[in-house]
Design brief:
There is one protein chain. Helix content is 38%, strand content 18%. The chain has 7 helices and 7 strands, in the order αααααββββαβαββ. The radius of gyration is 23 Å and the shape is elongated.
Length: 239
């Protein structure tokens, strides 16, 4: 569904007046879908194209795509701001409020969808005989058993890990970096705190972590809000 006319005008007005990073924390840029041919694409130093590409990339990173944006209204807002007529149509405070509220509503809707998807995935995953479920809802699978002691919440541990979303997207991996990490166990998400206390040194477990034992309703880097998480974790040492 396209944004409303008022919102598209506000987005163009606000981006022209304040730049790409004015509506809160800057979003991580994402690749833009190609909407021009190689022959017609601007070449060389073209500020307008570059700025438009950055704006589009930020919108895409916030969950928009080409079908969500009425480019006529977006350009109308840009033009009004550049001509100094924007305030006559909508003041800056109203533009800021409208854009922020829309993005917040989008994030809340996406977070709810992620929560449902995670719950459905975990419900099916729990049916597998090799998966064990704790009272908190943490699920784990023993990939390799260890023979050493188990850490307590006050210990510092050294681990290798590989973290993905339930769709297989990798968001972090010490394995891929080739460098294990050490940290106080009490400083990490609850799913890790509980899961690692089940593991003897030398063990490798697969942890399936519900959103409430992970980052909950807040996004964290490449992890969207309310995401269920999957980690393969190898406990190398208690330090």
């Amino acid at each position: 569904m396209k944004w409303t006319t008022r919102l598209l005008f506000a987005a163009g007005l606000f981006s022209a007046s304040y730049g790409l990073q004015s509506c809160g924390e800057p979003a991580q840029a994402a690749p833009m879908p190609s909407v021009v041919s190689q022959e017609s694409a601007p070449k060389g130093d073209n500020f307008s194209y570059a700025y438009g590409m950055l704006l589009g990339s930020n919108l895409k990173a916030m969950g928009m795509d080409y079908n969500d944006v009425d480019t006529k209204e977006l350009l109308a807002g840009l033009q009004a701001a550049l001509e100094g007529k924007g305030e006559a149509m909508m003041d800056q405070a109203a533009a800021q409020q409208l854009v922020n509220k829309t993005f917040q509503d989008m994030q809340a809707k996406a977070g709810q969808a992620n929560l449902v998807k995670g719950q459905e995935f975990l419900a099916e995953n729990a049916k597998r005989p090799e998966v064990k479920v704790t009272e908190s809802g943490l699920q784990y699978e023993v990939l390799k058993e260890g023979v050493g002691g188990k850490p307590s919440i006050s210990n510092k541990v050294k681990v290798h890990y590989h973290g993905t979303l339930i769709d297989g997207t990798v968001f972090d991996s010490s394995v891929d970096r080739g460098q294990p990490i050490s940290f106080p166990l009490g400083n990490v998400i609850r799913g890790w705190q509980e899961g690692l206390q089940l593991m003897p040194v030398g063990a490798k477990y697969k942890l399936y972590i519900p959103a409430d034992l992970g980052y909950g309703g807040r996004a964290a880097g490449k992890i969207p809000a309310n995401s269920a998480l999957i980690f393969e974790v190898e406990l190398l040492a208690i330090e």
